[in-house]
């Protein structure tokens, strides 16, 4: 028993085994305290050190970091407002002239747009716009006609990429606020008014400034046609038809070799497909959204009629080429409108040049024949149809004689050799009438 009890009543002092691990409690308390702070581990850092760390972050990394907390977002907003950050991330990128670097520059401004989109996420729309513009407003490239490299500076395009990323996903009401804000901060409406009220070409730097700003910032960055239409309507809607026609030509009309808007070029010279394609796409965009409130296809036709006589009536070949580029529906609408108003001579001349352009640009002559047939159907009386056919054939003889006289006079002031032009017209006439005869024989 004694031995058994001694097992339970041992008088030897017991040894306490100490853990070799470091105490964890102090570290745990410290971590929780830091996590409770809006800046987390960065709270104890001096502001200069924190800014130094932010300088090493790319725009994408900074945009992700801004979503950690409201305080971090505010710190990043303060950081991007500094001149040093603006000089490093914005100013030195605007005059990058290397074509190889163009893609990376555009990506850089997309990333900046994402950064501003995220760090201003908790602000009202107007405050977000005001803050973003305050950072970019010090850049001379974004002030109309102030950049030393104007009109070759691509600053408006880069700012457009930035703005496109910033407001992507915003609803229509917010986008209207964006346009109103831009008009307020850049005096866009006053600049447009000055451009459309002066004599065409007299204020060529102002016209180019309007073109570069509107296309670079508002129009060219959008992929969806609906978005492009919205911004184009924002630009055009405040103005009457006459001003809309001039503004549309300023924005999309062909340029001369010296970089000026080609007001006189479309009147005196033949402009190729490339020079008129942007204008045609804009007209198609406006015409295809006829369901928009307060906007009808007739409005587009009125704009075209006004544009084609500014500052003087266009060269008829340019009119015809633009109508062909605009497509069958718009071309027919323009010709049918003139037919209803009894403008036979004007329609006949346009049709002759439609035939000529079809021959020159390689379009199927069947298209021109069908267009002539459709216009003929506008006339309900047989005598009117006969007068229309006679007018077209007489106009063909008249245009042929005009070209022959130019060839005989030896005038070579135009872009195309008159003799070559005459031969092309004769070939076009032969192919046109061959197609008519073939279609008539096929019916029989």
Characterization of the model:
The chain contains 23 helices and no strands. The chain is mainly alpha-helical. The longest helix is centred in the last third of the chain and has 28 residues, at 382-409.
Strand fraction band? under 5%
Mean pLDDT: 85
Radius of gyration: 35 Å
What's the overall geometry?
elongated
Write a concise synopsis of the structure shown.
By secondary structure, this protein is mostly helical.
What structural keywords apply?
single chain; 444 residues; mainly alpha; 23 helices; 68% helix; elongated
Helices and strands in order:
Elements: H1 2-8, H2 25-36, H3 47-55, H4 59-65, H5 70-80, H6 83-89, H7 102-119, H8 125-136, H9 155-167, H10 172-186, H11 188-197, H12 204-219, H13 225-236, H14 241-252, H15 265-268, H16 273-288, H17 297-307, H18 316-326, H19 328-340, H20 344-361, H21 365-376, H22 382-409, H23 418-443
Helix pairs in contact: 4-7, 7-9, 8-10, 9-12, 11-12, 11-14, 14-16, 14-17, 16-18, 18-20, 20-21, 20-22, 20-23, 21-23, 22-23
């Amino acid at each position: 028993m004694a031995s058994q009890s001694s097992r339970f009543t041992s008088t030897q002092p017991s040894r306490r085994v100490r853990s070799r691990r470091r105490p964890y409690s102090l570290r745990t308390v410290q971590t929780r305290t830091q996590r409770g702070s809006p800046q987390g581990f960065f709270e104890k850092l001096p502001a200069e050190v924190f800014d130094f760390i932010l300088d090493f972050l790319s725009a994408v990394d900074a945009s992700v970091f801004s979503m950690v907390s409201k305080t971090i977002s505010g710190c990043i907003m303060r950081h991007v407002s500094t001149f040093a950050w603006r000089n490093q991330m914005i100013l030195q990128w605007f005059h990058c002239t290397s074509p190889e670097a163009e893609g990376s520059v555009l990506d850089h401004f997309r990333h900046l747009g994402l950064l501003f989109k995220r760090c201003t996420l908790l602000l009202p729309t107007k405050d977000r716009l005001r803050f973003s513009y305050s950072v970019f407003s010090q850049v001379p490239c974004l002030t109309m006609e102030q950049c030393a490299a104007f009109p070759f500076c691509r600053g408006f395009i880069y700012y457009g990429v930035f703005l496109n990323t910033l407001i992507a996903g915003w609803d229509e009401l917010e986008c209207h606020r964006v346009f109103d804000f831009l008009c307020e901060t850049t005096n866009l409406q006053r600049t447009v008014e000055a451009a459309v009220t002066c004599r065409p070409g007299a204020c060529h730097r102002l016209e180019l400034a309007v073109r570069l700003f509107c296309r670079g910032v508002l129009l060219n960055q959008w992929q969806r046609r609906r978005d492009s239409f919205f911004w184009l309507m924002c630009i055009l809607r405040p103005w009457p038809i006459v001003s809309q026609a001039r503004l549309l030509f300023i924005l999309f009309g062909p340029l001369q070799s010296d970089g000026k808007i080609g007001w006189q070029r479309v009147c005196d010279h033949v402009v190729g497909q490339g020079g008129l394609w942007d204008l045609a796409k804009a007209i198609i965009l406006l015409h295809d959204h006829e369901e928009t409130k307060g906007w009808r296809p007739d409005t587009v036709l009125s704009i075209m009629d006004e544009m084609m006589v500014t500052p003087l009536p266009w060269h008829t070949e340019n009119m015809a080429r633009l109508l062909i580029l605009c497509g069958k529906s718009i071309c027919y609408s323009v010709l049918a409108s003139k037919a209803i108003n009894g403008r036979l001579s004007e329609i006949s001349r346009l049709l002759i040049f439609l035939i000529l352009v079809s021959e020159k640009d390689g379009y199927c002559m069947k298209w021109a024949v069908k267009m002539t047939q459709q216009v003929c159907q506008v006339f309900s009386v047989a005598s009117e149809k006969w007068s229309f056919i006679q007018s077209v054939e007489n106009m063909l003889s008249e245009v042929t004689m005009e070209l022959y006289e130019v060839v005989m006079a030896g005038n070579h002031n135009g872009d195309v050799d008159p003799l070559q032009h005459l031969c092309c017209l004769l070939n076009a006439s032969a192919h046109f009438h061959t197609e008519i005869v073939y279609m008539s024989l096929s019916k029989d």
